[in-house]
Each structure stands twice: as structure tokens, then as C-alpha cells.
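Intended use. Records like the one below are meant for learning the mapping from a protein sequence to its folded structure. Do not use them to infer anything beyond what is encoded.
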Amino acid sequence: MGRKDAKRKEKRGSEETLYKGVLDITRSGMGFVITDKLEADILIRPNGFNTALHGDTVRVKLVGDKERAGRKQGEVVEVVSRKQVSFMGRIDLSPTFAFFVSDGTKPMPDFYIPLDKLNGAKDGDKVIVKLTSWEKGKKPQGEVMNLMDASDVNDMAMKELIMESGFPLLFPDEVMEEAGRLPDVLSAKEIEKRKDIRDILTFTIDPVDAKDFDDAISFRVLKNGNYEIGVHIADVSYYVEPESALDKEAYTRATSVYLPDRVNPMLPERISNELCSLRPHEDKFTFSGIFEITAKGEIKEQWLGRTVIHSDHRFTYEEVQEIIETEKGIYRDEILLLNALAQRFRKQRFKRGAINFSSQEVRFKLDEKGKPIGIVIKESKEAHQLVEEFMLLANRVVAEYVAKIKVNKKSIPFPYRIHDTPDEEKLQPFTEFAKKYGHKFDIKSPESIAASFNQMLLDVKGKPEQHVLEQLGIRTMAKAVYTTENIGHYGLGFSNYCHFTSPIRRYPDVMVHRILQEVLDGATPDDKKLEAKCKHCSERERAAMETERAANKYKQVEYMQDKLGEEFEAVISGVAAFGFWAETVAHKCEGLISINNLLEYDDFQHIETEYCLAGRRSGRTFRMGDKVTVKVVAANLTKRQLDYEWILTPSDNEVVKKKNK
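Structure written out for the chain above:
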């Protein structure tokens, strides 16, 4: 080791013995910290948590020389960031003090609650408590934020899911005060700085229950016969200034969370539903991409910048779809022209290598208490595709514009939305499986893989194996993330892509707006922390998606609780050594059929490459995509788990007889 290296090591000292990671506390009370720097995770005993709770990001030092089950032991020396600061539970009240006891499944200490911080809570009340301070060697201290209605089980469950994922339920007072001080009236001085397109036909297209209209489309025919189409996005960055309380809170959340019966927003309603929502017949500040487009869909000119608009009409998707199908209705000509262009863009996109996975969305019909009373399956129709294609256009053009700018031959830091090529390990077994259904894959290049996927998706449409091949195909795909390292978006077939069109509900879009404006002003943005911010936004996005999935699963279980003992047709949606999952055809509700349920029929073996369970004696198989009959035997809301039982039908016996011939 050189003298410089030795000095550097000496200077860093104990830093080299610290490991950063996330604390995972098991139900038994033991903790484990997973870190990139060690192969095995670090074991943390309860007395070494040092004010850390489950999910917190911590720094750990190793203690003792002994390893336990191949793991080094350590203790937490610092809580870097908390995953969760609000918790649900009950109050234990005595005449002189109060404690909060958490409802969570993970062990955690009771919180001391000063009597002046009870906010009206009585002994035994269900409450939400915020952790306010925690000194080493003392009890954590908290404050009651909300009294809960213990009879509203759904409300408590949804709030608990949101909190467990680290999303705050309420906005801090200073954030609400800051939002409240923002002016209702648009500044005349600011209007003068912007392109004024208030006299051009502009409208919004959104879900029927939407309140935050964050994008609008304008349309007019130019003298040369071309079309001028504007994509106008709520100018959140005008109202939310960097480093303000509003900005810090929006960054911490990084995204809105959409649950079956509510939205946990990134920004207070004052901004999302009032000031920035592009409501009809109101002047609004927007950030826009305006395009001159020929009838053949060629983009001749483009302009990016800040605007002021006036929405003439608020459409729902259903209304636009009806106009497309019947060719009747308000602004019929404009809608039909926009739709024709959108379909042309869509066709071109798939031709250039975008992958055409069909999208189905399962929504619950809820009663006034949030209980699911029905299920609606929403498919992407032309009205949705119209909006989607113009949003994709704006996102792509903004990314292309910034990507071209070079300072000292280097690109400027920018939050791109990237999507990597499929995972080779997952792709290999998938292509072998697809081959059994007659689908050949050319895996020589990313382009040929995309072309093979599209051909397969086309060939499989309407066939029994469609669902399984689509689902398995999606699983081979990488996850899209935010990063300054621009490798393009494989799934969309774009070399440059970003998120520009939803700043009310996504923080990366706010960052994109700010950087774009700096560039348009001739400045050279250079945010040294941008990659870390991108990583944080990607992590929060994943947490939101997991919360949404958990909430949907909760609703599935709640919906099927009334159907115990009933039998349904289902499709096998996953296979493991311990059983298989099946999704009911009628409700899209997934449950597990345990291997124990199958033992009376045969001894089943899991064959991973075949995505199936195969009987050693009978030759009976349970393969992904197979239709089965199931009975609902258990619905556990606490675990968000459905258990089904496989029902042997006469047709099943016929299948086995044919196989054995």
C-alpha cells in the first residue's frame, strides 16, 4: 500500500467499518441489515437497534468476532432516514401519562405520549400517532394526529397501508399555510411573459371521477393546411418553488398514491385540484409543447415554453370514445382528426420497435363505505390512446431537446425515464416456453426481440394462451426507472424519453420542468444531487406501486369474503413448488391452491422451465394459463390472502385419460 493510500485509510478511520443498509425486523424481534458491501446480511439483536425501526435506512458497525449462521453481528450507530413516522394503534391512558401501542405486525416499542399531545384521545381509542422525538436510552415520544373510527375497518386498512409504505397521510401545517398563501388570480405581469393561446380551442380528456386535470390539448388548422396541436401541462413549478416547504414535502412523497377508494396526493388539494387543475372556463398557467403537424403525421415545427390557456371543454374518456365511435358530438371534427393522428403515431411507434403489450385495468365498484360490490374491467380504447400518444410525443420531444444540449462535449444532468432490454436469464426460459405454442423468438438483438414479441402478441390475440404469454412476457422486462444515465426506453422504442406531462402527481416531472426552463433561459443546469434524487423518486414510485397492489389485494379478499364455498372458473396465473395461483375469470381475483390440496390426487413435482406442476403417476399437469375450477375456502383480510381449493371436474378426468393413452 502506498503512503497516500495509507494516509487516506487512516483519515477515514472508523468510516470503513460502517455499513449502510435497510433494517428488516422479523416478527420474532431479530433484525437484519442488507448491505451491498457484504455477501450475507448483518444480524442485529433487539438491544442493538438504537432507535431504529423496521424499514429505516441505517448505518451499522460490526460487533464481536463471532458469526451466527454465517452472518456477522452488528449494531445500529445512526438512523440515516426513517421509512415511517406515523403509526396506527391504540392509546393506553392513566391519570398521569399515556402510551401508544402499535397495531403493526413488526415489534416496536410503545411511544410515550404527553397528556397535552393526546388531542382529545381517550383510553382505548384507535389513533394515528406521529413519532416526534427519540433520545437514545429513552422511550420514543409521539403526538396524536388523528382519532380513528374503529368501526370503519376499510378506512383503517387503507391508511395503514399508506403509512407502512412511508407515505405521510397529512401535510404539515407549514405546507398547508404556504399553499394557502398562493394567489388565486393569475398575475398580469406573468401573463405578459408567456405565449397566450387562450383564444385557441383547448380541452381536457380525463377519467369521469378525476379532479386534478393536469393536461390539455389545443387544436387549430393553420393557413398552410397543417395542424397546430398543443400539449399543455399544469405549470406546477410556477407555484412550487425550489427548497420551499411545499417543494420539500412534494420531493419526500415523490408521487401520489392511487388506492381503490382514495388518492394520497403528492401536493395539497389547493394546488392539485384548484390552482393547477386545468378546469374548464378558467385561465391557467401551463408548460407546453406546441407542434405543427401534417395530415400524414409529420412534425414540421415544434415549440417548448410557458403558456397561458383557457380550457373550453372538459371531456371524459367515455364521451370522447362515443364521439369516435358514432362520429357525432361537440368538437367532433377536431376529435376525429386528433384520433386519426394518434393512431398513425401509434402504428409508427410499433413499427419502430415499441412493444405492444395490451393493458387491462381491474377496478372495483365500491359502496359509500368503500366495500367492493362489483368489478369493472377497463380496457385501453382509442380515447385513451389519443391522450397517451400526444403525451408520449411531448415527453419524447422534451427529452430529445435537452439531450442535444452539450456543455464541454458533455450532456447536462437531466432526469430521463429509461427502460433496459429484457433480462437474459428470464428471457431464455420464456422463449423456450413460447416455442411450445409455436412462437419463435429471434434473440440476436434488442430490435429482433421486440419484433418477435410484437409478432407473438399479434398471433396470440384471442387464443387461450394469450393471458399467460402476455403475463410471462411482461415478467421478462426490466423495470423502468429515473436516472441521469440515458440509455433510452426499450419498451416504447424511444432513444430519449422523460416524464413531463404529470407534475401534479409525479415529482420527476417537476424537476424536468425546472431544468427545461433553465435551458430555455440560456442557463446551464448542473445539479450534483440529481442522480440521488432520481433514485429516491424511483424508490418512492416502487413503494407506491406496492401499496396500490396491496390495496387491490385487500379489496379482492374483501370482495370474495361473501363467496366462501362457491365454485368459479379460473386460470392458473403462477406456479411454485408449494402450489399454484389461480385467477377467477369473472372477478380477476387471485388465490393460492396449496400443494397439500393436491396430494390426494398425486405427488406433484415443480418443473420451472415448463411453468407447471406435474403428477409423477397420473401425468396430470397444472400449467400457467390452464383453466381450472376452484372453490373459495378462506379469505384472510389481515394477511390479504385468498385460499382456493382445486375442484376435480369430469373434463379433468378426460384430459388425464387422453394424456395416458
